[in-house]
Design goal:
Blueprint (H helix, E strand, L loop, with lengths): L5 H5 L2 H27 L3 H12 L7 H8 L3 H13 L3 E6 L2 E9 L1 H8 L6 H8 L3 H20 L15 E2 L11 E3 L4 E3 L18
Antiparallel strand pairs: 1-2, 3-4, 4-5
Bound molecules: iron/sulfur cluster.
Length: 207
Amino acid sequence: MSSFNPRHRADNPSGQIAIALYRVSQVIGYLFRKRGTEQNLSPAQIQALLFLRYSRTGVRTIGGLSSRLASSYATTSGVVDALENKGFVKRQPLPEDQRTITLQLTEAGSQKTALVDDVLEVIENAISDLPPDKQQAFMDVMQHVVGRLQASGHVEVYEMCWGCQFFRQDAHPDMPNAPHHCAFVDAPLEESSTLFECPDFIPISSL
Ligand code: SF4
């Protein structure tokens, strides 16, 4: 089965959609390269900055970034070295475990991240032209496709607590600083922690 073969996809909507997604991926690659040229960053460096801006604190490590970039530890370490040399990232031992080195954005890194944060705006604008019911249908379909790819190990999905099956909202009314609960790690959650992307996220819809 070759989605690239026009004869094959003439009779196969799934092949036509696969090629449409391929074209979108080409646009995304182009957008990252273009923004990278403008900001003197590589596409991997942009992804690393965005990861450190939005991921849950505990995964901001070389290992966490390496899974997100789907790159080797050595390659990821090189990306972090480059960002560190530019003054955008600093390595810091975790206070409770000095052997674990975490990665943090510096003030300059945060400012730089703000300049690349809207890199997917062109894609979002193209989708927002659709009427709301078609956007909802599109989202349902994409969640199905991404779920299949996640289950087969082709992609790691990081999302926020609010749509996660492990999230227990307001489970600790007596703890104003950490009112929610994560059943995956069996620990209370601060409100602010629920707004970061987490690699352990499992959507409620997969129940
Ligand atoms: S597993 Fe789910 S509830 Fe727990 S921190 Fe991750 S996203 Fe939040």
